[in-house]
Amino acid sequence: EAGVTQSPTHLIKTRGQQATLRCSPISGHTSVYWYQQALGLGLQFLLWYDEGEERNRGNFPPRFSGRQFPNYSSELNVNALELEDSALYLCASSPQGVISGELFFGEGSRLTVL
Amino acid sequence: AQSVTQPDIHITVSEGASLELRCNYSYGATPYLFWYVQSPGQGLQLLLKYFSGDTLVQGIKGFEAEFKRSQSSFNLRKPSVHWSDAAEYFCAVGAGGATNKLIFGTGTLLAVQP
Fold this sequence. Notes:
The complex is a heterodimer of chains A (114) and B (114).
Chain A: E1 5-7, E2 10-13, E3 19-24, E4 31-37, E5 43-50, E6 53-57, E7 64-68, E8 74-78, E9 87-94, E10 104-105, E11 109-113
Parallel strand pairs in A: 2-11
Antiparallel strand pairs in A: 1-3, 3-8, 4-5, 4-9, 5-6, 7-8, 9-10, 9-11
Chain B: E1 3-5, E2 10-14, E3 19-21, E4 24-26, E5 32-38, E6 44-50, E7 56-58, E8 64-68, E9 73-78, E10 87-95, E11 101-104, E12 108-113
Parallel strand pairs in B: 2-12
Antiparallel strand pairs in B: 1-4, 3-9, 5-6, 5-10, 7-8, 8-9, 10-11, 10-12
């Protein structure tokens, strides 16, 4: 069974540009979570999607947005990139959210903003 | 608000020695608690989880954790560390209900000396 897949693995952008990151959940999982892992800050919750709807978002500015497609894959968009957006962005999926058990993580997309 | 504290940023142990990684949480209700491990360049892998019942939880790779409600702790232990255990370890608490997300600590980086 394929795990959570993320693309691209690495992405380099300059300040002010836009970045798009993609995530395919495990087959059968309807919930997708996005986390930002910046150096020294641990994992910060960004967004939770379930059944195509945004269910919750973390304490991030509106230039962080995303969506979930009918096949449950997801996209994270970061507009007007700033240097501090440089981080590893992790996507995770689960059948029904954390109440059902663990989150299954992808290997992440590393975004570097110059 | 829910939170997780991992007081040790970096720990070094000798191979074969015992290990204990500390985790304290703040959560109003009965928490769902998790320990994840992240090897360099990898996503997060679940080591073990506590939902209810027996407060001593066994996980993969010989790890165990004990839930102590009175101390709001969920410390991770291993009796004999192997060099392959060198990684970063994250404790997390599951916030259910409408928020339905995992809140992570800042992680503990484990180094193993030969």
